[in-house]
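Example 3.2
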Amino acid sequence: MSDLRQRFFIEDSPVRGEVVHLENALQTILAQRSYAPAVQILLGEMLSATALLASTLKIKGRISLQIQASGTFKWAMAECNHLGEVRALADYQEDPHFQQAEDSSTVLKTLQNPVLFINIEPEAGERYQGIVPLDKPNLAGCLTQYYDLSAQIPTLIVLSSSSQRSGGLLVQLLPRNSEEEQQRIDEDLWPRLTLLTETLKPEELTDLEASDILYRLYNEEEVRLPEAEALYFGCTCSKERCASALQQIGILAVRETLEHQNPISMDCQFCSANYCFSAEEALGLFGEHLS
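Structure, written as tokens:
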């Protein structure tokens, strides 16, 4: 089973959806750090969610989910871009609750003053940030509520994850255009799809092929499957980005850093890549040279 995103349509209806499966990418991300079991599951669900939400965008760019809180759990983020590259990271202090691996509710119920941000960053154009209350039992419930209230698009989201695999399902009832409004629509379709989707078991979402999941749920509907899209781990770090970060902190801070660390060493928290800047390279970013 590969890492993929499978789009689907219900023929002669305004219903579209996506099924996401992550395995290799998830294991690569979780191997970067030693995460508690419940945090592994939360990151897996966040990764599947970003891959699902990215599929709803018609832009080149990236979308990220970021949870911020106080207390033992500080923050977590997951990101997916239009190329299907995903990455994720979390920062927290050890907490016995995080050793209990159930679903995202294991972590969410321990958070203090939590908030979830949805960040949309197109390559061209203005950035957008939405704020989602974390007042539902799990991440899927919070995101479903966001679409219902903010986007006002009837949406079903199901998420599941383990330390090995994560999966997600998104189904939406899109607004009909003027031509579609003239067509007769099965008014029972959305209630029927809702009931069928609620029968999906967590282990089915992570362990079954996308085609098997869709057949298991909607075999009595006319489901159309375009070609699946590949998903994979990808990091946007580079020496150029690190150089830009040094320029942002300023020449005085760089000089002070060089007194204690020469060359300056910068590690990427997402992929563990290391970038080094000699004194000559670091000062050269500001047009200065060693005397």
